[in-house]
Amino acid sequence: PTGAKVEVLLVKPKDSAWEYWEAMVRPGKRLKSGDEVVIDDEASILVLDRLSGGMRLVRIKGEDTPYNIIEKKGKVPLPPYIRGNGRASKHYQTVYARVDGSVAAPTAGFHFTEELLDKLRSCGIELAYVTLHVGPGTFRPVKVDDVRKHEMHCEDYNISFDTAERINKAKKEGRRIIAVGTTVVRCLESSSDEEGFVLFGKGSTDLFIFPGYKFKVVDGMVTNFHLPKSTLLMLVSAFAGYDFVMEAYKVAIERRYRFYSFGDAMLII
User: Fold this and answer.
1) Rounded distance between C-alpha atoms, residue 38 and residue 251, angstroms
2) Assign residue 196 a region: left if phi > 0, alpha if psi is -120 to 50, beta otherwise?
3) Which residue ranges does UniProt annotate as crossing the membrane (predicted)?
4) Which residues on neighbouring strands pair with residue 141, listed in sequence order?
């Protein structure tokens, strides 16, 4: 062992046992194929190959199962502006999360407590849930002059038959579909047909929504305040209009609203 410290961010499992992963490593130039990152006496991570986009193929090694190694020895990948303490890790999750797989939490959902969800149900608001595994590409800033040339990484999603049926029934009855977060927007828009009806099942999406996009499913959304030059801000601008969104951001700054993961949110309808 060299004693050097490295960071391995597990992005996407490549097998059902969670032994092989697509991962981001830092510092990337230091880790080559065949290198082994020692976690402790019981576990390590073997770098197998270099993938496109600066990613690596890695293997979780140890006496325990890969899943247990990750659960016991891994840490929640918090954004760099959040101090990595136990309290932040515990709260960096929605109350309705059920399936492991995202590299980040859908932060618009942070605003919904169990109490608030119960109040929404009591008001006659129907709730439906989808799964979308947020990938690191969601947060990549757009660095090209022509946004059509920006490359989005694929993210896996899963929509149950029940959820698709309930959404489609609501649309047929003229009720509004309000998405909680940009991840839900991308999930629903990616899984719909040309008439705006949602298809159930598993899929993968690299849909990049920017001004000019014609929404087929979503009638409104709850979303946090996003950074400039981000795909998230472009999605919101595509839905509500660039000038309107910029005016909302101006008001938010004047009134000292909070940005980022644990910040304030807005409802666009």
Assistant:
1) 49
2) left
3) none
4) 230
Which DSSP category does 199 fall into? P
Residue type at position 103: V
Instruction: Please provide the DSSP assignment of 195-263 as one string.
Output: TSPBPPEEEEE-----TT---SS-SEEEEE---TTBHHHHHHHHHH-HHHHHHHHHHHHHTT---STTS
Distance of alpha carbon 17 from the chain centroid: 22
CATH number of 7-73: 2.40.10.240
pLDDT tens-digit map of 103-139: 888 889 999 999 999 999 999 999 999 998 888 776 6
Q: Looking at the domain that runs over 86-268, which CATH code has it been given?
A: 3.40.1780.10
**In angstroms, rounded to a whole number, what is the distance separating the alpha carbons of residues 89 and 193?**
38
pLDDT score of 203? 92
Amino acid of residue 267: L
Residues in the chain: 269
Domain ranges of the chain: 7-73, 86-268
Six-digit token string for 156: 């896996």
Predicted TM-score (pTM) of this structure: 0.86
Closest alpha carbon to 15 in 68, 71, 64, 59: 59
What CA–CA distance (Å, rounded) separates 61 from 48?
Answer: 12
Centroid of chain to Cα 69 = 23
pLDDT 10s digits, 179-207: 999 989 999 999 999 999 999 999 999 89
